[in-house]
Amino acid sequence: MKLGAYRYWHETVLAALIAALMIGAAVVDPRFVSWKTQIALSSHVWELALLAVPMTAIIITAGIDLSVGSAMALSAVVLGLAYQAGANAWLAAACGIVAGALCGTFNGLAVAWLRVHPLIVTLATLAAFRGVAEGISLGRPISGFPASFTVLGLGTIAGVPIAGVIVALIATAAGLALARTPSGLSLYAIGHNPAASRFSGLPVARLTVALYALSGTCAGLAAAIYVARRNTAKADLGTGLELDVITAVVLGGTSIFGGSGRIIGTVLGVLAIHETREFVGWHWEHEELNAIVVGVLLIAAVLLNRLFTRPTR
Prior knowledge:
Helix content is 72%, strand content 3%. By secondary structure, it is mostly helical. The protein has one domain (3-308): ABC transporter involved in vitamin B12 uptake, BtuC (Orthogonal Bundle).
């Protein structure tokens, strides 16, 4: 059987690369692959993973959301200001999540109803959301959240981080929705040909708004997890995170042209980036190497896609 005919070939190759990395890390420094170390390092990955799930669905429709990092920052600032205003930390977190959902809904309405290209819309809101966050916070960080709130970012269940459990549940639900539900399958059709999908009676506009709203909601939840872990809400958090998210999704095999992609691939892409960065920082302590290695991983993934998949259009 040819590799290109195997449905999960990309995920298999990516999993093999991750396994090779972990084996190599175990040889170089066995402490890195210990359960204790991996759990400690995992706190750096949950926001990236949470944002990558809805981004996968958006890119499957041939869209993109460059504003997720800024929406996360605005959500965090809203959370902080709500707490300062007297709301308890959990209610403040809910306010931040609602703010994120509104950011995503705005993007979705502009893309679906005004028919503005998502690259243009989200490039504009990337700057606008962060500008609003800077303005309403006056550029000052907000801290002093109660210890009970840190459980969201640092707490564990049977030794597994609560944030990791949340991400796993959301990723599983999204994967099943994409593979098994009519709405999920419709996203692939929209990615292949949005005009034909619209003429076929698919609710293209409604699904588009829902996707971007979901992306904003996940940005709000990621902000709550970040603030709970760092005990700080500030307008500059999440800067550049959108590029890491898109890299993870593309590395996982989702086509930037739309019409193909799976959540399991994105999860592996997130894991590959996370483990690579953590090991480079752990062993060599040269942060500049991270960008080089991740760039090489992304180029390799794109080349594999071009070599082993036949064009669909």
